[in-house]
Amino acid sequence: MKPLLRLLASPLLDVLAGPNGIDRYLAAVNPLWSVSETRARVLQIRHQTRDTVTLILQPNANWLGFRAGQHVRLGVEVNGVRRHRCFSPASSTHQRNRLIEISATVNPAGVVSQYLKHRAEPGEILTMSPAQGTFALPVPRPERLLMISAGSGITPVMSMLRTLCDEDYPGRVTFLHYARTQADMLYRDELYDIARDHPGITLVCAHTRQRRAGDLHGHLTEEQLNSIDADFTAAEAYVCGPPGLVDTARDIWTAHGVENRLHTETFTSALTMTAPATKGSVVRFARSGISATATGASLLEQAEASGLRPPFGCRRGICSTCTSRKFSGVVRHVLTGEASHTEEEQIRLCVSAPSGDVTLDL
Amino acid sequence: MRTSDKPNPRLTLEQLDALARDLDAIREAVIADLGTRDAAHIRRMMRLQGRLELTGRALLYLGFLPPVWLAAVACLAISSLLNREEIGHNVLHGQYDWMGDPALNSQTFEWGSLGASKEWRHSHNYVHHTFTNVLGKDRDIGYGIMRLSREQKWHPYYLGNPLYAALLMPLLDWGFAFHDLEVDRLVRRERTWSQNREIHRRLRRKIGIDVLREYVLFPALTGPLFLSTLAANACAKVLRDLWTSAIIFCGHFPDGVATFTEGELANETRGHWYYRQLLGTANISGGRLFQIMSGHLSHQIEHHLFPDLPSPRYPQIAPQVRAVCEKYGLPYTTGPLHRQLGSTWRKIFRLALPGRTRSQAYGTAA
């Protein structure tokens, strides 16, 4: 596939494809194909627990792979609008056919997770960023590892564990996972199987809302860690979960003076609704590094008042000349009052005014 | 029935504001409903365009068989028509910006036309759609080469009106590309050569690549069939341009369409802009296939009121727009292609001659 990709990206083909670009013709044959975009086809959708969803993805040839623990930014089209969310693959980096598995907890108000749980179908095409992040299994592999996760924070450490199993890792791994109840635990059967088949891997299941099952109960404490392994600070620790879990871990490791052995990743909810304050909020022009206090005027006027010169035409929402990228924040259409969503999108500066803090690509 | 020299129906400021509210409400209902269907439509069109073009190019390897050659020309003409109108023109209007797909972003999209997107966004999206049918402002009235409004001052040059139209039609894409250079204004010294330098460079590059592709590389790739392929490619473009020009001439030139003066632009409200779009534009009636083949420019009225709504929405909202027109006593000019085209051509001939003679009412529906 790689030599074919190189051929497709040659200047001759570029001229033959013309302004439409080669991708137009590739997509006319197979929507997964592209010379510029990393895309993935949804092969399978599984529902491991009541409020999670697991997807098996087949990426196209542009996918460069990942290191166990890293995350990718997936573009999912919901109601025609491309939304971006970060997910950590849970699969082994040695997975056959380079398939990628992701699991997400469904957020009751989450546009993307609700969509993936209830409406997505196998065959759908998603876009992918390259793998990102420094929360990753190091090379060479450390001799002792401690992995702590909660909820869907299990995905990056699951990838690490599966990768180590595929490599016949000779060291010791302690895998501590927090789930509300046994029924909420992702990858439960597979984890028990792994622990049974690998003497070096110790699985500890902690439940925060169920007393009967599990090895531990309640949220992370130092006592819990001591009860598992009195020498827990000797291992390289990888912690992934909600901010509460990560903060507790950081306090414990700092108290021992070994925070250099602690690696953390936290999942924050994408729902960062801004207050609908019109005046007094901040308009950030990211590219030029300028910030201004919102005056209630249109973003075009605000940009000009800040000394920027974005292109414009009609100044009344007809011609789209001033269309620019909004990175984040809610804007209001000054003529109709309609409010935008909070995510990255194209907006027309002349008929948009900020509702709360807004960051623009200007 | 009305003709272009009947006075435009006048509305009070309050009526214009109410008109704006009614039309805004139609727009908002569509915006709230945008979704999967709209995304699926543009993707389907792009897939269809890609497949037709690939099929056409492939068929030309059998271009020595006349029926196959004709089929190839048909595939290429339709693909290039879809590419220019239903895809390019509509994407450049920002109709799909809300999807957040970089391949459909109006600011970075480069369309399959000889002129560059950047110039088109200025001359079309901004100048033509903002100053629609305002004499001295909208350069699409006669495209700077024809006399298509009685209010344009007559000059012996306009005796060639029908000839200019006949020459422009098969070469529309070239005409539009050079339209951006505003040569007429250059001649009148309203524009300097230096203003054109960058546009010139972009134009040269884009035209150069297009000529290389259509008339050198693809013919060469078919080896001994070089001339047959070259002819097919040229025929496809000419057919597309004949069809496209027929459609767009009917958008603003038939009887019943009004022109305006610059004086009307002072402190123009949204309502007055809507009013100008309604009076300055005409539709062509036809079925679903015709609508797609015209890039939905058969719904010029709806397109001019809401240039940023995805085009398949135009036929859906047309009954509502028509009801608004009736409510305010405004004309909604429409008719079948042959009638609108006949009316346009009669005008092209009539206005070749001087004078402000009263035109006859040529059956435009009011």
TrEMBL record, chain B:
A GO molecular-function annotation: oxidoreductase activity, acting on paired donors, with oxidation of a pair of donors resulting in the reduction of molecular oxygen to two molecules of water
Segments passing through the bilayer: 58-82
Alphabetically ordered keywords of this record: Membrane, Transmembrane, Transmembrane helix
Domain Fatty acid desaturase: start-end pairs: 68-334
PANTHER family the UniProt entry points to: ACYL-COA DELTA-9-DESATURASE, DESB, FATTY ACID DESATURASE 2
Protein name from the UniProt record: Fatty acid desaturase
One BP term from GO: lipid metabolic process
